[in-house]
Fold AraC family transcriptional regulator.
Amino acid sequence: MTLFSRSSGTALITGASSGIGAAYAERLAQRGYDVILVARDRSRLNALAAKLTAVHGVQSEVLPADLTRDEDLSRVAQRLADDERITLLVNNAGITVDGDFLDADINSINSLIALNITAPTRLAHAAGNRFKARGRGTIINLASVLALIHEMSNGAYNASKAFVLTLTRALERELKQHGVQVQAVLPGITRTEIFNRSGQSIDEIPTHMIMEVETLVDASLAGLDLGESVTIPSLESLAQWQQYESARAAMIPGLSLSQSASRYRQ
Ligand SMILES: NC(=O)c1ccc[n+]([C@@H]2O[C@H](COP(=O)([O-])OP(=O)(O)OC[C@H]3O[C@@H](n4cnc5c(N)ncnc54)[C@H](OP(=O)(O)O)[C@@H]3O)[C@@H](O)[C@H]2O)c1
C-alpha cells in the first residue's frame, strides 16, 4: 500500500545495495518516492530496483558509484545539483574498520575518511544548495551512537560519525528557515553486513543490543515525521538527550573568554 501521494518526489540513497540503505530504499518506495540507488555493486542495485518497481510501482534507477573515487563522487554530486526531481538525500554509505585506531591499517582508515566524511560532505553540500534554492527538501545523514561514545571502537570511525552529527546540526541551522529538513540518525548496533565487511562478527554481541534494519529505519522515519533533527532510535529516555543538550548549551557562554579559569591561575 502506498501511504503517501506520488508527489513525494525522488530520493537518492547512497549505500543502497545492502543493510540500512536497502531498507531506506524499500520504506521510501513504500511512501511513494521514486528512488535513485547508489553503491558499487551494480547487480545488487539492479535486483533491488526491479523489486521496488514491481512491488511499489515507483521509478527506480541505479547509479553505480564508488564514493571514495573523486570522479564517481563528482558525478553523484552533479546529479544532486542538476536533477530537479530529487527531494530527499539519504547519506548512508559507510564503512568501519576493526580494532583500535593504532592497530588498524592506515589505508583502511583513509578509505573510511573518504567514504564516511568526504562523500557525505560533498553530497550534503550539493543537495543542501539545491534544496535551499528550491525552498524544500530533506537530508538524512547516517551517523552512529558512537558519535557520543568516545571510549570504545575504532576512534576514526567514532570521529567520522561525530563529524556527521556536527555537520548535520550546522546544516539544520543554515537550512531551517529555507524549508529544508535535516536529520542525523544515530543507530546503535544494527544487523547488517558492516561487521563481516570489516572482519568482525556480530555473533559476539548480545542479541538484546542488536536492532533489525526495518525496526531502525521505521523508527528513523518516525523521528523525521516528528521533525527531529537528531534521532536515536533505541534511546527510551528523550529526557536524557535533552539533559545532554542542556549541559552542552550551559557551557557555551564559558567556552571562550579573555581570562583563563581560576584553576589555571595558581
Ligand atoms: N550496522 C550498524 O551497526 C551501524 C550502526 C551505526 C551506524 N551505521 C551506519 O549505517 C550506514 C549503513 O551501514 P550498514 O550497517 O547498512 O552497512 P552495510 O550493510 O555494509 O552497507 C554499506 C553500504 O555502503 C556501500 N558502500 C561501501 N563502500 C562503498 C563505496 N566505496 N562507495 C559507495 N558505496 C559503498 C555498500 O555497497 P557496495 O558494497 O555495493 O558499494 C552498502 O550498500 C553506515 O554509514 C554505517 O556507518 C551502521
